[in-house]
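pinging the channel bc i need a second pair of eyes. not urgent but kinda urgent?? the chain im working w is below, pasted from the shared doc
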Amino acid sequence: MTGDRRALGILALAALGILGALPGLRTPDLGFCYPFMTPDSWDWLANGLYWAGAPLLPSFRPPGLPLLVALLSHFSALPLLPFLNYAALGLSAALLYRLVRLRQDALVSALAVLLFVSNGSLFGHVRYVMAEVYTLPFLVGAAIAFEKAALRPRLYVACGLLLSVSFLFHYAGLVAGLGFGLALALFRTPALRTGSCGSAPSALRTRWPWIALFVAVPLPVAWLAFRALQYRAHPEAGIHVIEGLVRLSAGNLRYYGVVAIALCGLLPLPLYLAGFRRLVRRHAEPWSHAVLGPLLALGLFFTFLYDWKDKRFLYYLFPFAVCVAAEGIASLREWGRESRGRSFATVAFLVLALLWNRIPYPRDTGSLVAFSPYDFLDAAMGLRTATWKTLPVQEDGFLSFRSAPQGCRYEGERLAVPYVKRALDERLAPGEPVALDFAAARPEHYWAATNRLAIALGRRVGLQNGERALLRIEPDGSLRAFLDGRPLAVPGP
């Protein structure tokens, strides 16, 4: 009973941390004012508004998040999207608790959930308009179904269906599915054939894995076929490259080795290592299949078979890595029960590990392993004078309860767009594209500006190609507009 009460307290702390992020998500305009946007974020929004009927040219990213954007846009509720991000994180945490609880007691499961939601890198990334967090509930749910399917084979169908839906948010669902399939073929089928799994029916003699495959395949195939037809019909569309990046990429090994250590954190890392060692020793158990199958498949794929390096790909692995860490937490607790001194050391280590876990990994570096909180803060914030007073207790993130930032990053564009839109709508045909002149520091900044303005104007924006209308972003951030070479009157910032 005491353990259950402590578990409830830890889960309440995890929920409080998620709720603490919500005040900082309020924004009057998602496109111009919301601070947590990347060039990809505006492309996700542009894809969503295309599905809502706007005359934009999408890149045909996976349709899950764009369809959600389209739904929110229909109800003029786009600023609610960041709040739904954290709702998806909360759902992922609840499912992760259920997955860990299939093997561990309530206290260890609650600690694993806290390790998951308080991770500084994941928690900060959830604020961004991206699709990763919406994929996680389906992946974790599929793992739960796969674990239970060892004794109830009908649940293979649920696993296949969840993976199929996850594919519509990100193609990582396909790789995770291959991991589950490989675990089934290598571990469950031989054991079941020899009867070593007790009363569990043999995977070779049951039709349910094949029905699951039949259920999982049509939706991804239909989407890929539709996407290919759209690219053929619209060759001018910005292609969202996926297939061309699937090739041998052994050069990613060092990169992901560094960022994986940084994501886990050097202090919590022993929990992951001890848990992995313990789990591999018990590889014949169904729970191990459900965790190690997708973890290893996703890790090997992004490291060796996908020629694009990005820290956010590790978030698809992270729930399963936390399951591994739960094994380490259980081992540590067993060690701590042997004496009062060990018990105190166990509690102290877990507290310090959770505090370290909260430190966010710097977004703009892939070559840093922080050996202290100072190193993280220095790289993340440029603080050569960082001190212990700026440790994550006060830093933005889990349990920060920060209010929304004031002002808009693109205030000049935001002020001018209503006038520009009205003038263009009066003088141009519906959907007629306009050009953008912008001396961007990097190509992705120009791409982001075209999507940002296309979303606001409801028409395509791109490079000059004989368009009547021209937009120009000045160095001071103001937006100027020209029609047939003549300037339009718009307010400045």
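so The first strand starts at residue 434 and ends at 437. and Residues 172-193 form the longest helix (22 residues). — does that match what u expected or am i reading it wrong
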